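Quick note —
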Amino acid sequence: MTQPHAHFTCLQDAPVLITGGASGIGAALVAGFCAQGARVAFIDIDQTAGTALSTAFPEAKHPPIFVHADLSDVGASKAAVQDAAEALGGIQVLVNNAARDDRHDADSLSEDEWRASLAVNLDPVMFVTQAAMPHLIASGRGSVINFSSIAFLLNMGTVPAYGTAKAAIIGLTRTLAGRYGPDNVRVNALLPGMVVTERQRELWLTDDSINDFIGKQCIKRSLSAEDMVGPCLFLASSASAAITAQSIVVDGGVC
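Predicted structure written out below.
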């Protein structure tokens, strides 16, 4: 199990819901919250990976609960949230991590491709949060962490739909923070840099491209999914009790 750099006692037994938790950054987050002693549920479309991860931490105080759903289906995502809340006994922390960073050519991007990208990368942030909000409010100290990306800050020409969704998440984060702050629910965003995951290596990254990007970072090493765990735990915990409507870049010093 991934061991975080700090232990937040306020997260022990806390009910935590993570979207896109079966692999990549999401799986690292599941491991990180389990290591805190939190009660964790995660939603993912990948049945095989989700089932495997749910049994990967036999030493955890609370083994993670896998909820299978296609988050691009709003009805299914809302039902999954309710299933998770019932299994956890509520929701105190929501991590909107699910994403799919497909590449597109702006000249040939179709309407279907555009809408499919937003359905995965943007819609769940709104509608999963909407479904979880009564539980977050009931907890008395809800925290929502939305995963954006530095992609739109780098003027990446290959991600017109993904970049738009990730930029929109910043606006949505601030809007939701303003709306639900009076209910003691905080909403913040994390913007990862180039995180080297298995999917990234399979589809987009090479040793040369990784080294080239590391050259642009202040911290001269590749970032891993585990690098996102500490910042997420901080925003979920009472250590950040006065922080809301903020966007924190975790990119090794590029932006």
